[in-house]
Structures are given as structure tokens and as C-alpha cells.
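Postdoc handover notes: sequence design on the structure in folder B. Input C-alpha cells:
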């Protein structure tokens, strides 16, 4: 029955003004959506306010699958408006039938009502029990959303009651006399033809093709907390299960109501793989590959993800159909017995290396986590040796399933076992602390490399502990390293080591776990190091005398990925080092001691060096830097000296010589390089005024270690260093013009000033 709004208090400007008085304001309409009432000017018809009315009044009976419009309106006696409706379901419901209830203010910009639906069923004692509920709980004036409830219901001819109201509870209940809500109750068939399969799995039949057992299925997570289960059989030793859950549907708006997740369980009911989408906006695509735990029936559970603390249901969504692809296949990467794998260091596959011979290590990353381990047994060696390795180009195709991730995260490690120590704890401490037993190239144990080595040394359950000698990591995010050019290495092999461990596998976490079932190959060579064999043992420097006549030393930097000077930003992918790569010996060092040949006073230093090309190439494998120790005072008895350690490295751009003020106009090119045949020559120009001050010369000698920097390949670097000394000051030709040579700055009449030069 229509009622007329004759007298209602409206708050305006802080004053209560009676409507209908001589100065009554116009009706207050819902504008912002957060007012206590939203007034349309008169009370709408509102007769379905009790369960009894819902059952007895034909106006309160819903017609299936048709919209009903009504209001959550002002109640004249000040009570809370609650609407009740009845609906009778069809007589042909099945186990796949779904009750679908939709309602709300969707389509209007704002409303004060937080819309709530409760579906009720009369109980034997006459009370009402809830079957389902939903609400549009919003904050402030947020745009309203429709509420939708979808859940299985198979009882034919059942009579249900639907309760509609403001949610209340948090704040004073709100009403809306202007905007009607819509309500629709319908019964539909679940689009998932496998239902009900929450408890009884849907079998996936597998058929054989090209050595792979394969089967597919599909489903919908149509209802709240829906759980779809599937099963498939597995038989045979070391089988691999490939599983993919995907959908062709994308860009759903609004987005999917849940984050799809799965659990794969073995025949004993133990989870062997789990996964969840990162968010509901992404196109569904989850995959894994796992080694089986034995014969039997495996079960796949697909569901909407819920956190451990989540009390609300994982909402269903009728729109998205997902597909399940299951493949079962034998592990093709097995040892000769056909059973035992080499996934751990304890089961590492033995490989006997021959000196100066290349051996191929091969395998495939066919499941998560399929790490391949090899024990490299080394032959007897009479002198220094270097272990070289290089990952061959990986095939773009060939696996029995697509790669699990578009971002591979593979890793190579070379390991030396630390066996010295009476207990596992003592051996771990030796691995972490003893640089003789576990070589390391880092100075700070808290730096990345230090934490890497100490962390691996302390790996639980590993004895003897593992000392990392070399590590290479796939840096797919760096364009220049995507072809894995950093997956090469050359490391010195200690004379007393008879075996080393070598591993190749994936390090991905979460959805970055990687497998592709494609064959890979790594070439490994143990080779003599003749250059190192000619040098004194124990890093003792070779003695060379300098003078006015040029003196030349020659050598080979045979191992290490080199330090970085111009390539310091490793995230640019310049050179062959990745930002997370590590070698226990960064570079081979050739040590020399150069004496001044009895010279006295300041001495001019002429210096150039030559670097040979890689065999068959047109450029060297890197360039050189020099670690200098410029001695001061008397030499020590063991040939050492006191002095300042510095690094001399070429910079081919212009910079300011040591003797000029640091200003742009004083910049000079001090290093030049040129090609001579199959080599590159780097020269220090006279304008640099390189020299040794008299206090350094008085010490009798200086020390130099030749190292590799900015490597572009891991091949040996053959070099020669040519140098001489003469009385200082020398002269240079001024590049700004003039035919008269310019003298380097000398020592003043009072003995002040003198020579010096810049190093890094």
C-alpha cells in the first residue's frame, strides 16, 4: 500500500526542521551516497517485511530468473527495513544444479545502503536456517556493486526465503528511498560437466603417443570454495609427470573472482607440487614437471586460493573455463643401471677426466628440481692444471613439454669437498674460515661472495661440506647475457685435489621454477698450464732488471673471469661476468719484481704492453691491469717490501695528468692502443709523465702482478710487457701545438716537487 511521507525530520545545516512547515526545505536526495537516508520525496510501496508476508503475499513471491525491483526504505515507526521474498524451485534439479542469486544497486552511481542478501530455509522446528549469504560491504561513498551467490542446490520443489537489507552492524542501518534495488533468483546447470567431483575425482584417461602418456580435462570453479579433483594412473620406474592448468580466456572484466591454485598429490596423499597464480588479473597458466614417487593413482586438486587466516570463502566464477593437460613420460636422463638418478651430490655420476682432453657432460632438466651432479675424477698431474668448462648452445626446441617458465634460472657450480677435520662441525668451520682448504677471492665475509661461500659450506646434511670454486648464474633479465655467454669458466686445480663436483640445474623459486626436458651439453677440459709451470712456486715474483734499454717480460693469464674496470656495471652485460657470478680465483696473477738497476733519483718510466688475439679471432680475450707495490725503504729479507698497493689500468678517454690542475682544458689522452698484426698494443704516452720518485727508486725495486680485466672471452690471454727507465724529467710533444718539446715537471731548486703519476 502506498504511503505518503507527511512528516520526517531532515538534518540541514545542523538544525532539525519539520517537513511541511512554512519554511520546510525541499526533499533531500541521495547525492554523495553516505547520508543516513536517501530521500526520493515520498515513501515507496514496501509490504514484504516479514517471512509470513513472503509466504502468503503473492507480491512477495519471486518468479524464477526474472528481476524484481524494490526499495530498502524509510520505516515510518523508525524501525529497520528488511524485505523478505519466497521462491519455489523447479522439480527437476540434479547434482549439477546451481542456485544463482543476484541483487544490488549496481548501475547507480551511489547509494547509502550496504546491500545484503541471505538465503534462508525453514527448519523442522519452525525457525529459519541460512543456506548462503553475501553483501556489498563498502567504505563511504564507494560505487555500489551487485552481490551474486552461486552454490550447488539439488533439492527439487524446495521453497526458499530471501532476506534483503542493509548490512548494518558496523554503523546505523541506511536506507534509500530514491534508488530501487534489483533481485533475481535462478537455477542453472553448472557449466562444469565433471561435477560433483569435490570428493570423488574425475578420472583423466591417458593414451600413448610417441612414448608419452597424455590426457586432458577441463572444469570451472563455479561456486564458492569449489574444489575440483582429478585422478590419473602412473606406472613404471622414474616417470615424470608434466601438468599444466591453463585457460584461453584473458582480460576478464571484472577480473576473475579468485586466484587459481592447485595441489598434486601422490598415491599416499602427500603433496608433491603446489602452485598459485600471482594475482587474479593474469591469464591462468600454471605448470610443473615432477618425478613420480612410485606407481599408483595421482590426484590433482584445483581450487581458489585462500590464505591461512582467510575466513571468507574463495568466490566462484561462472565465466572461466580452465583446461588440464597431463603427460606421463619416462625420465630419459638415467645412469647405466636405468634407475638411479644423479640429482644430489651424494649420487653424483662419476666421470673420469683425461689430461688435455675434452669431455662432454650431458643431461636434461626434465623436472623440478632436476639438478645434475657429476664427480670429476682427476688424473695424476705433474704440474699446474686448469679446469675449463663451457655450456654449449641450448636447443630452442626438442622437449616433450613446453618450458615451465619464460624466465630460466639455471646455474653451474664447481665444488671442492673439504675433508679436513675430525667432525662435521670442524669440517664446516674449516670450509668457512680456512682459505687454504677453501680458496676465496673476497675480502669481506659479509659481502655477497662471502655469504655465498659460507652459506654453501654450512648447507645442512652435507658432509663433507662444499666449498664453491666457481658459480655461473643465468641472468635472463640482462639482454646481453641472455645467450648465456657468462656460462664459461677456467679455474686452477690444486695439485692435491683428486676429484671435484660439478652441478648444473635450476634455482628458480615459485613460478620461476624451470624445466624444459631439452638435452644440454657442457664441455669440460682439464689442461696443463705451461706458463704457470715455468714460474716460481708459491706466487714468488720473477726478478727482472730495468734500465735505459727496453726490457720485456712475457706470460699467459690462463684462468679466471677477470676483474672489471671499464665493465664495472655488471648489470649491463658487458664482458663475460654476471652480477652474481663467482670464482674463488678471480684471475691468474703473474708476479714480477723489477729492480732499478742501480739508478738513483727520479726516474722516467716508459711502458707499453701487447695482448695477443684469441686463436682465430680479431681481438684479445680481455685486457690487462697491473697491481703495483711501489716499495719505500729497505727491502725485506724475503724479498717483500713496505709500500702502497695500487692498480694501474688504461683509460683511453682524456683525463688530467697528475701534474696539471683538474680542469676540463687540462684533459689529455694518456693511453693509446693500436693494432699490430694479430695483437693489440697499449702504450703510455710521454705526456702522462710516468715516473718513479727518488724515494721509491732508493728502495731498489718495485713489484708488479699482471692480471686480466674486462674479459670478453675466457680464453688464455698471451701478453708481453715492455718497459725502460731513464733520468727524469723527460719531455713530451704538446698536442695543442708548438714544435718545442715540453718538459715534464721536475724537482725544484729547494728539492720540493718531483714526479708522481696516477693509478687506480
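Designed sequence:
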Amino acid at each position: 500500500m502506498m504511503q505518503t511521507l507527511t512528516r520526517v525530520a531532515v538534518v540541514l545545516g545542523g538544525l532539525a526542521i519539520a517537513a511541511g512547515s512554512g519554511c520546510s526545505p525541499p526533499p533531500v536526495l541521495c547525492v554523495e551516497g553516505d547520508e543516513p537516508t536517501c530521500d526520493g520525496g515520498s515513501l515507496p510501496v514496501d509490504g514484504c517485511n516479514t517471512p509470513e508476508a513472503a509466504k502468503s503475499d503473492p507480491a512477495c513471491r519471486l518468479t524464477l530468473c526474472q528481476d524484481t525491483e524494490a526499495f530498502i526504505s524509510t520505516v515510518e515507526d523508525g524501525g529497520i527495513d528488511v524485505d523478505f521474498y519466497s521462491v519455489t524451485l523447479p522439480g527437476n534439479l540434479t547434482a549439477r544444479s546451481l542456485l544463482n542469486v543476484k541483487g544490488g544497486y549496481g548501475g547507480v552511481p551511489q547509494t547509502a545502503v550496504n546491500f545484503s542478501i541471505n538465503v534462508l530455509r525453514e527448519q523442522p522446528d519452525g525457525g529459519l536456517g541460512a543456506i548462503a549469504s553475501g553483501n556489498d560491504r563498502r567504505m563511504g561513498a564507494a560505487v555500489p556493486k551487485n552481490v551474486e551467490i552461486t552454490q550447488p542446490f539439488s533439492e527439487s520443489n524446495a521453497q526458499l526465503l530471501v532476506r534483503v537489507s542493509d548490512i548494518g552492524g558496523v554503523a546505523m542501518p541506511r536506507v534509500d528511498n530514491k534508488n530501487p534495488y534489483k533481485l533475481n533468483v535462478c537455477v542453472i546447470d553448472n557449466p562444469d560437466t565433471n561435477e560433483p567431483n569435490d570428493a570423488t575425482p574425475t578420472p583423466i584417461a591417458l593414451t600413448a603417443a610417441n612414448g608419452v602418456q597424455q590426457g586432458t580435462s577441463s572444469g570451472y570453479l563455479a561456486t564458492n570454495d569449489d574444489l575440483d579433483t582429478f585422478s590419473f594412473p602412473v606406472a613404471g620406474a622414474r616417470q615424470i609427470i608434466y601438468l599444466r592448468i591453463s585457460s584461453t580466456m584473458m582480460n576478464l572484466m571484472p577480473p576473475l573472482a579468485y586466484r587459481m591454485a592447485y595441489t598434486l598429490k601422490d598415491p599416499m596423499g602427500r603433496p608433491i607440487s603446489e602452485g598459485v597464480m600471482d594475482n587474479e588479473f593474469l591469464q591462468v597458466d600454471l605448470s610443473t614437471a615432477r618425478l613420480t614417487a612410485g606407481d599408483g593413482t595421482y590426484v590433482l586438486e584445483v581450487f581458489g586460493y585462500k590464505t591461512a587466516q582467510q575466513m571468507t570463502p574463495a568466490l566462484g566464477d561462472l565465466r572461466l573455463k580452465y583446461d588440464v593437460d597431463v603427460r606421463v613420460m619416462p625420465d630419459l636422463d638415467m645412469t647405466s643401471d636405468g634407475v638411479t638418478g644423479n640429482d644430489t651430490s651424494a649420487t653424483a655420476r662419476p666421470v673420469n677426466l683425461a689430461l688435455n682432453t675434452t669431455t662432454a657432460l650431458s643431461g636434461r632438466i626434465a623436472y623440478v628440481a632436476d639438478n645434475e651432479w657429476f664427480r670429476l675424477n682427476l688424473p695424476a698431474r705433474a704440474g699446474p692444471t686448469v679446469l675449463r668448462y663451457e655450456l654449449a648452445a641450448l636447443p630452442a626446441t626438442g622437449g616433450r613439454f613446453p618450458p615451465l617458465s619464460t624466465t630460466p634460472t639455471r646455474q653451474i657450480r664447481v665444488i671442492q669437498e673439504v675433508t679436513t677435520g675430525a667432525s662435521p662441525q670442524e669440517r664446516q668451520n674449516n670450509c668457512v674460515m680456512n682459505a687454504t682448504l677453501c680458496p676465496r677471492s673476497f675480502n669481506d665475509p659479509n659481502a655477497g661472495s662471502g655469504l655465498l661461500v659460507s652459506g654453501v659450506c654450512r648447507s645442512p646434511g652435507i658432509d663433507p661440506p662444499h666449498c664453491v670454486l666457481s658459480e655461473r648464474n643465468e641472468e635472463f633479465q640482462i639482454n646481453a647475457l641472455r645467450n648465456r655467454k657468462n656460462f664459461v669458466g677456467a679455474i686452477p686445480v690444486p695439485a692435491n685435489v683428486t676429484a671435484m663436483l660439478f652441478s648444473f640445474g635450476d634455482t628458480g623459486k615459485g613460478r620461476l621454477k624451470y624445466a624444459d626436458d631439452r638435452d644440454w651439453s657442457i664441455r669440460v677440459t682439464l689442461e696443463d698450464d705451461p706458463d704457470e709451470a715455468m714460474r716460481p712456486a708459491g706466487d714468488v715474483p720473477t726478478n727482472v732488471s730495468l734500465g735505459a734499454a727496453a726490457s720485456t717480460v712475457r706470460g699467459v693469464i690462463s684462468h679466471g673471469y677477470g676483474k672489471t674496470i671499464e665493465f664495472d656495471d655488471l648489470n649491463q652485460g658487458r664482458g663475460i661476468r654476471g652480477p652474481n657470478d663467482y670464482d674463488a680465483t678471480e684471475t691468474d696473477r703473474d708476479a714480477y719484481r723489477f729492480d732499478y738497476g742501480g739508478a738513483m733519483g727520479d726516474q722516467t718510466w716508459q711502458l707499453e704492453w701487447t695482448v695477443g688475439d684469441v686463436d682465430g679471432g680479431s681481438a684479445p680475450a680481455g685486457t690487462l691491469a697491473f697491481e703495483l707495490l711501489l716499495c719505500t725503504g729497505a727491502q725485506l729479507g724475503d724479498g717483500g717490501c713496505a709500500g702502497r698497493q695500487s692498480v694501474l689500468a688504461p683509460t683511453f678517454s682524456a683525463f688530467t695528468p697528475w701534474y696539471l690542475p683538474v680542469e676540463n682544458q687540462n684533459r689529455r689522452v694518456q693511453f693509446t692502443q693500436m693494432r699490430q698484426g694479430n695483437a693489440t698494443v697499449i702504450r703510455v704516452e710521454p705526456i702522462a709523465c710516468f715516473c718513479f720518485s727518488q724515494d721509491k727508486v732508493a728502495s731498489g725495486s718495485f713489484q708488479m702482478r699482471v692480471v686480466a680485466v674486462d674479459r670478453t672471452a675466457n680464453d688464455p690471454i698471451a701478453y708481453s710487457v715492455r718497459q725502460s727507465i731513464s733520468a727524469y724529467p723527460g719531455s713530451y710533444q704538446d698536442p695543442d701545438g708548438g714544435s718545442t718539446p715540453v718538459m715534464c715537471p721536475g724537482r725544484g731548486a729547494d728539492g720540493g716537487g718531483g714526479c708522481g703519476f696516477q693509478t687506480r
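Context for whoever picks this up: The chain is about 5% helix and 35% strand. Don't rerun without checking with the PI first.
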